[in-house]
Description:
The complex is a heterodimer.
Chain A: E1 5-7, E2 10-13, E3 19-24, E4 31-37, E5 43-50, E6 65-69, E7 75-79, E8 88-95, E9 104-105, E10 109-113
Chain B: E1 4-7, E2 10-14, E3 19-25, E4 32-38, E5 45-51, E6 56-59, E7 62-67, E8 72-77, E9 86-92, E10 101-102, E11 106-111
Parallel strand pairs in B: 2-11
Antiparallel strand pairs in B: 1-3, 3-8, 4-5, 4-9, 6-7, 7-8, 9-10, 9-11
Amino acid sequence: GAGVSQSPSNKVTEKGKDVELRCDPISGHTALYWYRQRLGQGLEFLIYFQGNSAPDKSGLPSDRFSAERTGESVSTLTIQRTQQEDSAVYLCASRGGGSYNEQFFGPGTRLTVL
Amino acid sequence: GENVEQHPSTLSVQEGDSAVIKCTYSDSASNYFPWYKQELGKGPQLIIDIRSNVGEKKDQRIAVTLNKTAKHFSLHITETQPEDSAVYFCAASTGGADGLTFGKGTHLIIQP
């Protein structure tokens, strides 16, 4: 079946503009995560959605970052007033079933802020 | 919160030799330790994982060991092949709602 998809694959924007990144999780997966991966670095946890529960936003680096998820489907990550340090690959992952089940990652969106 | 350290950052081995990547973690409550492989331009893909009630797990050429007392775990790849070249990430989690805390990655290069 289809895996996690993300769009766009690449986004170039000017400093100060807002961007929206989209994630389509695997159908039926109740858990959805966003991570940020800076060049040559590991993955940094941003936000977690589980079903209809309130999201865990503890990893969001500033109030310019926000994310939404409609039920157990699509999620969008919004970055307002982008800064050059926001340049990174933004990865989405979804997980089904129990807590120890595998997180399946999408291919990521490469964001470049000029 | 959890902190995961990973070494080395780059590892070059001859094809056919073994490769070992090591990670340490700080949170003694962590009980789930996956390893991911990331090829260029792709998202990470799980290759093996281990839970804290197990000391070692093996899947063909890949094995992971866990030492809970010392809070470290390692990935072992035997008989390395060119397609093993990638960036490998270790991660730790307390399970449940927590996201994974990742190491900074190891760039594994298999020399022909």
